[in-house]
Amino acid sequence: MRQLASKWLKTKALLHHPYTAVYIPETCLYSKDQLRMMLGRHAFVFIKPVKGGGGIGVMRVARERREYTCTRMERRYRFSSFGELAVGIEKLRLQRPYLIQQGILLAAIQSRPVDYRVKVVKVGRKWAFRSVVARQARPGLVITNLCKGGTLMKGMDALRKIYPRQVATRKRREIVNLTQRCIPVLEKRFPGIGQLGFDYGLDPNGRIWILEVNTRPQ
After folding, report:
1. Any bridge partners for residue 197, and if so which?
2. Which residues contact 166 (CB under 8 A, 6 or more apart)?
3. What is the chain's alpha carbon radius of gyration, rounded to the nearest angstrom?
4. Entry pTM
5. Per-residue pLDDT reduced to its tens digit, 11-70
6. pLDDT of 96 higher than 90
7. Sign of the alpha-carbon torsion through 122, 123, 126, 127
8. Which of 167-181 are b and which e, b meaning 16 or more Cβ less than 10 Å from the residue's Cβ?
9. Pairing of strands 112-123, 67-72
10. Of 53, 46, 65, 55, nearest in space to 106 by CA
């Protein structure tokens, strides 16, 4: 069973398909110049390792009035200029390639961001859904990873805490349908994959975003 660690390769595959591309937040490889450009376009961004999981190394970076902030886990660092921010990130980030991803403000439950994990596996020649769950961030964190204290919920239970019943049902169906559209795109690009974990976010307007795809979903 093929596994693919690079978030960038999977993101590029989905970006190259016109249907799935519209669900991907703007994403690029990390560099100082790209960070400046992304912060000029978005209220905040996430910087995360190209390879890795469990929320390790993930940082939230924002420009706030007269300063920049960088949040990693519970720690928030403040910088008075972009130059100081860039130096600070170099000290904080792991010595490996990183991505910059447009920050998506996630619909929350009790002010704690929530995202959704859909796990599918290939059985014979067909793909089967194994789970649709939600992960609620630990109080004070912006990442939802369970290994970092996130709370696991049934996907439908979380949706119904945010939306009316009919809307929640429709959103779950949209997530499932989008997963079904993504699978052949990824399988064509990466033959041999046998399991996938899709991480979705819904913003306050109900728009669905593909935050990440894993070939070794936990």
Report:
1. 119, 214
2. none
3. 17
4. 0.93
5. 999 999 999 999 999 999 999 999 999 999 999 999 999 998 777 889 999 998 889 999
6. no
7. negative
8. ebeebbeebeebbee
9. unpaired
10. 46
